[in-house]
Design goal:
Layout (H helix, E strand, L loop, with lengths): L8 H9 L7 H13 L8 E6 L2 E5 L4 H9 L4 H10 L5 E5 L5 H8 L3 E5 L3 H13 L5 E4 L2 E2 L4 E6 L16 E7 L12 E5 L5 H6 L2 H5 L3 E8 L7 H13 L3 E6 L4 E4 L11 E6 L2 H9 L5 E2 L2 E2 L1
Parallel strand pairs: 3-4, 3-9, 4-5, 6-8, 9-10
Antiparallel strand pairs: 1-2, 7-8, 10-13, 11-12, 11-13, 14-15
Helix pairs in contact: 1-2
Amino acid sequence: MRQGTVPSVSVFTKVLQHPFNRSRRLRALGRLLWWQLVAPRNGEARQFGLIDRIRMYVRRGETAVTACYYCGLFEYREMLFLLRCLRDADVFIDVGANSGVYTLLGASTGARVIAIEPGSRAHDRLLKNLRLNQIDRADVYCAAVSSAPGQATLTTGLDATNYLTIDTQQPAEAVRVLTLDSLQLPAGAWRVCKIDVEGHEESVLRGAVDFLAAPELAAVIIEAGGSGTASGGRLHSIHNMLTAAGFNLVDYDPDENQLAPAAIDAVAVDKTVNLIYIRSRQWCNSRLANARQFQVQGRTV
């Protein structure tokens, strides 16, 4: 056994208290200890089962991927909402795809996926994960998303938290920029979009006027926070832009499989959070009520 670093108490607590690991804490503890103490430290990738027959490469330092290795569906509420809403005739747009956790989850439903990731290293890993699963219903863009097309600078070396920057002292790489309005999407297909852009959310939404107005766009999952933790002002700006486009903020209980209205003023402004916005509660309730089941680490969800 290679010498490893014992994980902190907070890591143990998060893994063992995660809702996916209820009633299976011993197994979760085993996965955590194996990865921390035995997994390769030379950059080599291992494979693990993400969902159903979908597999994924995992390496040390890939925080979003290792979180799913420990906890199955790490962002339990948001990921189950996505899985239960999507169908094989739909389109899932993954903005800030990183190594592809959400992209692969979307693909597992049979939906067509559009994955957008600007980081060259993450983009390469995303492509490898798609090839591993022979997923061909995917369009992948090596680009950032903002309010206007062009060029930008993206930090490097921060794994899933790389962000667009103008700091010339920060290790970074030049990236292409596109807008959501520039995407060519199939007409008539229901769409769900996830946005995870580490503090650049407002600019993404400014470049998505037509994208947000399309009646086919049924739901948006958006992370507020990241490298520049969401201030109350920016949080409300994101909320106002989405509500102006006809979306409503909701909470989702994955165990009860139920939606409830949510208030933006109840969202903590000092934490990074994922917000779920829907256009039609009737549409979402119908999808949730008729969702199929998935297999994650031997558990049916």
